[in-house]
């Protein structure tokens, strides 16, 4: 049967949701969608990818650009039955859950009708704001905040997607496997009695293979990178792991290995002490996430912001790479303000030399959340 995916990223919420704007959720969703569409990544066919961000991507690249130029699959719509994503707003909670849950029922029914016993998998990626709230069975869950969330005086709130209830619903006579990634905060709401309006139809505990990853521990914040390009710190470590980290002769990446990689590497993207949380079934290695050679060329190079506020304007700086030699094609920087921005850099060790005969230099690792101060 193959793989499906639903990918949501929300940077801007309606005023009534009372949520501050984010800077990296849409970019995170775009990056995950690109990986999902990659035959060597999530291996999701374009007609099986449900993608919605707000704002809508301004300048998508690569596989996502081709996907958005085509006819994307329709989402559940309360008025029309089904409709394309509305680019003028973020998706509502029911649109997120019902779209993929209805599809899962259809996929399972068609498989039974045709005697198809192959495995169906769904990837879920949600990036935006999140809180912890109670569900109808009185358990407390991390909830993704959708576009129709309204902080109300009563204790039953719409616009919340309880992530683990969603996971259980996806495995309830729908998909054989469910892999969820959520890059959102897990903080306790100020209204401790707030209850999430039900948006999924199952509260049991299926034993099918699954993995669910949260950006932070219970009651903790999820952070974005402090330097451009702005991204979720969790998503940054996650995507680097999905693309580049493999183990064993067959180049496997299992849930347990991915969990450890993200825990070990998130410090490259935030210095807040953020600690993701991932759990999975079956025990041991968990489900296989991806198999095959890592992405050619490794992580996408990114820029680095350098603090030069301690230096007088006009000071020359030289960027050195491996072997302490100047990077080819990059002329000396000239200080003209409190910061300078490097060109995109591949992961590695670098140094900035102050070209004034003093012998001063600053070493730094890239990427890393550690600030780079030259003075």
The description of the largest β-sheet is: 6 strands, mixed
Q: What gap, in angstroms, lies between the N and C termini?
A: 59 Å
Give the CATH topology of the largest domain: Rossmann fold
Strand residues, percent = 25-35%
What is the CATH class name of the largest domain? Answer: Alpha Beta
Rg from alpha-carbon coordinates: 22 Å
| SS elements, strand count | 23
Features:
375 residues, alpha/beta, Rossmann fold, Immunoglobulin-like, 2 domains, four-stranded mixed β-sheet, 20% helix, globular
Mind explaining what this structure looks like?
The mean pLDDT is 90. The strands form 7 sheets. A 6-stranded mixed β-sheet has the order 2-1-5-10-13-15, with helices on both faces. Strands 9-7-6-11 form a 4-stranded mixed β-sheet. A 4-stranded antiparallel β-sheet has the order 19-18-21-22, with no helix packed on it. The longest helix has 22 residues, at 93-114. The chain has 375 residues and is of the alpha/beta class. The radius of gyration is 22 Å and the shape is globular. β1 (2-10), α1 (25-37) and β2 form a beta-alpha-beta unit. It has 6 helices and 23 strands. It has helices at 25-37, 62-69, 93-114, 163-170, 233-244, 255-265, and strands spanning 2-10, 49-54, 75-77, 81-83, 120-127, 130-134, 140-145, 156-157, 160-162, 177-183, 187-188, 195-196, 210-214, 252-254, 277-281, 288-291, 305-307, 316-320, 333-334, 339-341, 348-354, 361-366, 372-373. It folds into 2 domains: 2-291, Rossmann fold (3-Layer(aba) Sandwich), CATH 3.40.50.1460; 305-373, Immunoglobulin-like, CATH 2.60.40. Helices cover 20% and strands 27% of the residues.
